[in-house]
Amino acid sequence: MKPRKQRLLKYVAWCAVLTFVFDASSITAVRAEPQLRAGPYHIEITTDPPVIPVGQPTKIVLKITDGAGKPIERAQVSAIAQMPGMAMGEHDETALPQAGQPGMYAAPAQFAMQGNYTATIRISGPQGAATGTAPLHTGQNTASGGIGSKSGISFIAWMPWLLIGASVVFIVYRMRRTGQRFSLRPLLNWRTWAGIALLVVVFLISSWAVHKYTVPGHMSVIEAQAMDMTVMKPPIGAVPVAAMAAKREPIDATVRYTGSAVSYVDQDVTARVPGTILSMTAYPGQPVHRGQVLATLDPRELASRVGEQQANVQMAAHATEIARRQYQQALGTKAQARAQVSEARSNVGSARSTLAASQQDVSAAQEEKVGAQADLDSAQTGVTDAQAQLSASQADQTYWSAQVKRSQALFTSGSISKQELQQDQAQSENANAKVRQAQARIQQVNATVRAAQARIRKADAMIASAQAKVADMQAKIQSSQSKVVQAQANANALTSAADGAQHEIAHSQAGVRQAEAQLNTARVVAGYTEIRADVNGVITQRYISPGVLVQPGQAILKVSQISPIRLQANVAESDLPNIRVGGRVRVTTARDPGHTVEAHVSSVFPAADPSSRTSVVEAIIANLDRRFVPGEYITMDITTGENRKALVVPSSAVIYQAKATSPVLATEQTAAVWVITAGQPEQRVYTCTMHPEVKQDRPGKCPT
Fold this sequence. Notes:
704 residues, alpha+beta, 8-stranded antiparallel beta sheet, 6-stranded antiparallel barrel, 6 helices, 23 strands
């Protein structure tokens, strides 16, 4: 019984591993989420019918909302469903809004064969343009709770686990009936675990190889057998065709954004003085011109102030006449004071001449002292030099005295000759002579020092005598200067009196001008009782009614200048590099969508909104017919590129051909058209080559 039990347990283990591998892959395959985010938009995708069929007409239903969950309306939406790497002539289909369902759009789609598809959604709405992709596959239930939804898991995914559970229950039941005991010891066999590990490794390597080396769009054998080619058959019978001549026309690439009209200037008409509104002739919607009276305040109080300022002007003129008479009296005594000042200054000049002579004597004595000091410094330097020489001579004397003693000892012992002894004695005598010479020089230099010191003392005496004379002359000058100061003070007092009288004249004249200025100000302020418009525009708002007391700075009316007017749109960052100042803009309004106004880009704001990642593109137009009003909803088609001589054909004539990118599959597609050639019944296809600055955004034309 033991081998049988081991085989049963191994069977259970292998079934569990295989079931896990199969169930993990199947759950991964069915849990596709048909939801995505495209820029600022959130998109939920469903289909009609909910289960995606093969070869039957299908609709892709899109629910588009913004980040706050608000439905997006008035957007241009297109959708296309293609198998990855297998383009079969599909093209973007316009998604039409669903009546009565805000934010809901539906576009036709065709799933020609069984397999995986990629749905590409393009949106051009109030928050800019965006593109997003989502995976789909045939047989997927896009309804809530179905296959591929966020919460639904198929019964097939749970079936292997139910089978393995039933098998385990059956094995346990049979073991109990046969009297066997359940034990996990056989599972601890290393051979069992080695086999399980080998199976897991093989599965992981296989999965990695399949994902890495499978060419995009490749179908398995089962998918190829299940492919339905009937949907690709042409209709039975002849297909009617039409021929149209291609022609060259100007074409441009544009991006469409919604925006609003903004006043060129918005001005609040405010009161500049307090007062009660007596009358108001302006009303919202009424055009006004610059300088026009819009309202009138009560002028009585300000008129009284004007009369008060006129009286002040007369008083200031009378004060000016009094000051002129006082000034004439002060000029008579001012001349006498100036004569006294001149006499005192002449006495000061004489004393200063004598002081200058004494100061010259002081300078001469100081120069003598400087020369004596220089001689003293030179002599002191000679003393230092003589002392240095004396020290050197004494050192030399000491050396040769010692050398003579050694030479005498050597001569006595017979080691040297008498001549060598005499030479050393001669050197010693020479050293003694140098010492005496240095001592004599020191005495001479000391005598020079004493002579220089005597000259310095003599110069100091001369300086003291000259300085005494200088002090005497300075005292005389101070006495004369005090007389000058006294006379100058008298003259200054009289001059001050004259200047005061003259200043009083100027002050009185300034008072006259001030009073006149205040009078003019009072007249200007009185003119503020008539409230006028500062710009040409239209009254857009009325804040206050007649009879109300207003204060300075309080708004009464709002005037908006709408000729010219600014047209603005928030443009996504991806489109900004292709927009230039001066580029063409076509503008339409919701009131008159059939009429298009041509304008040019006047400004691209150099700052972006951090929340929406958009920048403002502005166009200014004259708006002479007042077609646009502030705050109006507009649609702006902004040119991003143009070709003045493009070869154009109807967009219905454009087909999309698969482009071979490998020997096996074609993962790209290119636009092409059919061309009729005389004498050649076979079909010829010419590729549409896109101009580098032109996008195929304009319906009905294909630039080639």
